[in-house]
Amino acid sequence: MNNQELKALRQNYKKATFDMSQALENPIEQFKIWLREAVNSSVLEPNAFTLATVDINSLPNARVVLLKEIDYGFVFYTNYLSAKGKEIYENQKAAACFLWLELERQVRVQGVVEKIEEEQSDAYFYSRPLDSQIGAVVSDQSSELSSRKEIEEKFEYYRQNPTLIKRPAHWGGYRIIPETLEFWQGRESRLHDRVKYILQDQFLWVKKMLQP
Ligand SMILES: Cc1cc2nc3c(=O)[nH]c(=O)nc-3n(C[C@H](O)[C@H](O)[C@H](O)COP(=O)(O)O)c2cc1C
């Protein structure tokens, strides 16, 4: 792939429109509709999103995680001692970005992050397949791995001793409580539709259109 080829890559978006009259008053309800449409459109990993946090030196860091619950925020599960866990400990703010290319849509979220209740993390942890539970137990996520063999042996040990499998205290859910959400629908000639919701006074969502 050379730069000339890269520059020539171009799509014109024509699938849908999204304006103020289509946008529900509550952005979380609007999000659920778009997520449902993504699921129905056979998007691969429709609940995957890019999670951005910043480290103690304000260096942004982004990675993909999976959305697992929606209530008054967006819940994902991870290791609290991972790089993202440390970054959230230092700065409880995050951004999320969902991309559903098949629908020519993007949703961006900014908000404050909190840990969910332990019982909620337990409920999800024990609902996962056993191998996924073991994966969470044996991984010191984001720490250096000296050899693949080391972690595979740990994995096998828990497979042989399943009664030892417990949700580690450092594994659980985070909730991003949104303060802004932006819905982006690709349009022709780069005149895309953007509707941004901003939370005012903790309960009132104000929405506005943004230039593409
Ligand atoms: C499609 C996809 C889904 C993922 N889902 C999760 C997830 O739900 N939780 C998680 O901790 N990591 C998930 N990961 C791995 C993360 O992207 C990342 O590698 C890991 O969390 C370590 O990130 P950190 O070092 O910044 O903490 C996923 C990766 C991909 C590509």
Quick description:
Helices cover 28% and strands 34% of the residues. It has 212 residues and is α+β, with helices and mostly antiparallel strands. Helix 5 crosses helix 6.
H-E string: HHEEEHEEHHHEEE
Mean pLDDT: 97
CATH homology superfamily name: Electron Transport, Fmn-binding Protein, Chain A
Q: Globular, elongated, flat, extended or rod-shaped: what is the shape?
A: globular
Report the CATH architecture.
Answer: Roll
The beta-strand count equals 8
CATH hierarchy, class: Mainly Beta
Distance between the termini: 28 Å
Kindly name the structural category: alpha+beta
Walk me through what this model shows.
By secondary structure, the chain is an alpha+beta fold. It is built from six helices and eight strands; from the N terminus they run ααβββαββαααβββ. The protein has a six-stranded antiparallel beta barrel with strand order 1-2-3-6-5-4. α5 (130-138) crosses α6. The radius of gyration is 20 Å and the shape is globular. The two termini are 28 Å apart. 22% of the residues are buried. Bound molecules: flavin mononucleotide. Flavin mononucleotide is lined by residues 45, 48, 61, 63-66, 76-78, 82-84, 141-142.
